[in-house]
Design goal:
Elements (H helix, E strand, L loop, with lengths): L1 H6 L2 E3 L7 E3 L6 H5 L54
Antiparallel strand pairs: 1-2
């Protein structure tokens, strides 16, 4: 079984360090309990996507919400009716 795993070849990272790691690794429970780890690239070498650039959009004016008011009245001019409460 280990012979077949060795025949699977190696994976080589595409970073400056270009490290090689076995494609298929077999570890026993005993090896895992003794602290043996999987031979894999460092976390900073594992990148599947490029970082997207920050969006540069237009800056727009944020509109004020006027709850219960008509568009021609300002929010401080709104008259509230106690019967119109949402509760």
């Amino acid at each position: 079984m280990r012979k077949e795993a060795a025949e699977a070849g190696f994976f080589q990272t595409k970073t400056v360090s270009a490290t090689k790691h076995p494609r298929l690794q077999i570890l026993t429970i005993e090896e895992l309990l003794n602290g043996k780890k999987i031979d894999m690239p460092a976390a900073q070498d594992i990148r599947s996507f490029k970082q997207a650039p920050k969006a540069k959009g237009k800056k727009t004016k944020q509109h004020e919400l006027t709850f219960g008011a008509s568009p021609d009245k300002k929010s401080d001019e709104v008259e509230l009716n106690p019967d119109d409460t949402p509760f």
